[in-house]
Amino acid sequence: MDGGGEDASKVIHVKFVTKLDSPFRAPSSSVVIPSNVTRLGLSSIVNSLLTLEKHEAFDFLIDGELIRMSLEQFLLAKGISAERTLEIEYIRAVAPRKEEKPSLHDDWVSAVDGSSPRFILTGCYDGLGRIWSSAESCTHILEGHTGAISSIAFVSSEGAENVTVATAAKDRTLRLFKVDTAESGDPTTRVGAYKILRGHKASVASVGAQKYGSKICSGSWDCTINLWDTDEATSELSVAGKRRKGNNQAEETQLEGEADTTFVGHTQCVSSVVWPEHDVIYSCSWDHSVRRWDVPTGKESLNLFCGKALNTVDVGGEGSALVAAGGSDPILRVWDPRKPGTSAPVFQFASHASWISACKWHKSSWFHLVSASYDGKIMLWDLRTAWPLSVIDTHKDKVLCADWWKGDSVVSGGADSNLRISSGISIP
Fold this sequence. Notes:
With about 425 residues, this protein is mainly β. It has helices spanning about 40-50, 70-80; strands spanning about 10-15, 30-35, 60, 65, 85-90, 100, 105, 110-115, 120-125, 130-135, 135-145, 150-155, 160-170, 175-180, 190, 195, 205-210, 215-220, 225-230, 235-245, 250-255, 260-265, 270-275, 280-285, 290-295, 300-305, 310-315, 320-325, 330-335, 345-350, 355-360, 370-375, 380, 390, 400-405, 410-415, 420-425. It has a 6-stranded mixed beta sheet with strand order 12-13-14-16-21-20, with no helix packed on it. A 5-stranded mixed beta sheet has the order 2-1-5-3-4, with helices on one face. Strands 6, 7, 35, 36 and 37 form a 5-stranded antiparallel beta sheet that branches.
């Protein structure tokens, strides 16, 4: 059996198993392979067993752990005997199989949201938000900010033609937009905010939407977290503000809102906020901490200190309970707050070469997350190995934001002023 050109001085009996459907299911009989075969060699062997017309890349697990060295080295490191027939599970490699054409903006792409399967949101240093239905297809432009947009989020988008979008910017405000997605035209429809949220005393760094509800939260350079209501009925009318709903449509009065609640505790910029549960908010800060807040009381219930200024935080993984964060060093850290009495990360991934700007958990996997860095690279991770599954290096400058889209794509933006979509990623 061809092992990818590797020395066959020692051999091991293995049986390849998989949860994949046809045509990716190999014969169940055992085969003899070189002991020093690597992942690429294993992939070549499985491809020859499957007789596929087009070569498919695979990853391999033994006892639930991904192989990222030669098979012989892996068995030695794990104390696994090579005398018995080994059962090796294979899965489709977690890597993009297609790069869409880049979508050029007028300035740095600083924010992206891929949480809706129908659209992608981007925020840009030109002060505009944009809604994309696909690569190169911008359907709506969200206007009104007088400073660079730092964060953007869907407030509601599922199952309705009308979507609500929140933006946060360096002009110290947040803006809320209602967009009728059936109203896109040529040229791109321009939409003004129906509500401006004022209250922060410095640039707003991040906005997060309540997972089940109509509220949003924001983190700012003024070191506070504000909670806001997006409902028009709770707003005060602003006689000075006007907006246009779309191209050549009648002007309507614009609303202004004040924060419902302010959480105080961070001592530096609150760089990232997420609202993964109805009554729980997570935040990270340049004060080197990740904090968990109880929404009804405004009290912090967890404080994780990591010794580095942090740029990004997300919650997901097993039980939607793992906390991932990155910042002013190349290390992506993951904590498990369910483990009592420890504030040390349970995982640390150190393959980036510069600061980490973004991290996001995959919504349907316990193991997978994506990170972006000022080193110009995006990395796909699996908690079962310390090495990245894939490195995406299509950006020509710092990567400032990244997210998953549709479960099988990564969307990202950067200082090269491009939105990029890396698609065809198979998450088992």
